[in-house]
């Protein structure tokens, strides 16, 4: 293998949610997805550890699919935000029949990241601010600024694990 496994893996992840066939910067998201991948997904609430484990399972899938030897040290690297979001988009697909790639970009839209293509300026700074808000749960109580903004809720979404935020979002949006 000519390139480091991490770079091969990143390209594999990128292909899961974005097209690699576009050479135009306004149609690619390499910088955005690299920032997502370079940011550790830190879970604060019990239950969200499952989201981190799902992300690590994506890494295991990559090793199996590429027929690479299992690297225990590499598997112990904490889950990235990108891995968690890809894994969660698959869970969302299973629950709603909406494609995982579409869910991923709904997440990007809800986080206000979808416009940060490779032609945008200041991607690193903007992404860092948004991911800080997501990870440390400083978004609004109704979920705005996070993954799942709600029109109506009786629960402070900052205190609700991601899976239950998603369930409430699906109902709130009439997707279920």
Helix content: 40-55%
The separation of the N and C termini measures 44 Å
Order of helices and strands: HHHHHHHH
Query: How much beta, percentage-wise?
Result: under 5%
Whole-number radius of gyration?
16 Å
Low-confidence stretches: none
Query: How many beta-strand elements?
Result: 0
Largest sheet: none
Number of domains: 1
User: Which secondary-structure class do the elements indicate?
Assistant: mainly alpha
Count every helix, treating DSSP H or I runs of 4 or more residues as helices. 8
- What spatial form do the alpha-carbon principal axes imply? globular
Q: What do the pLDDT scores average to?
A: 94
Record the SSE blueprint.
Blueprint: H1 5-17, H2 30-38, H3 49-66, H4 72-75, H5 81-96, H6 100-110, H7 123-135, H8 162-173
Note down, in words, how this protein is organized.
By secondary structure, the chain is mostly helical. The protein has one domain (5-173). The chain is 55% helix and 0% strand. It is built from eight helices and no strands. It has helices at residues 5-17, 30-38, 49-66, 72-75, 81-96, 100-110, 123-135, 162-173. The radius of gyration is 16 Å and the shape is globular. The model has no long low-confidence stretch (mean pLDDT 94).
